[in-house]
Amino acid sequence: MKRKFKRRGVFYVYILECADGIYYTGSTNDLEKRIKEHNDSRRGGKYTRDRRPVKLVYVKEYKYYKNAIKTERKLKRLPRRRKEELIGIYGRKRTE
Prior knowledge:
GIY-YIG endonuclease, 3-stranded antiparallel sheet
């Protein structure tokens, strides 16, 4: 059975700061659930599993899935210095 994926709505691109100071970038359509998964469950992602707790340091909302994915890919390629600049300017410092 093929799953339908929602292509419109609200999508988020986020950057997490892991306990060891490493930045993790991802995207989702349910930000609160995804942050909770990163901190509390196996579904959170293999990369962040050993770097808990994670905290949300940057989030941006998109109307279309395609735009969120494009931005996520761009952010993943940025060097740490540029991510820190982005977080400093547009980031939301809050712990999840």
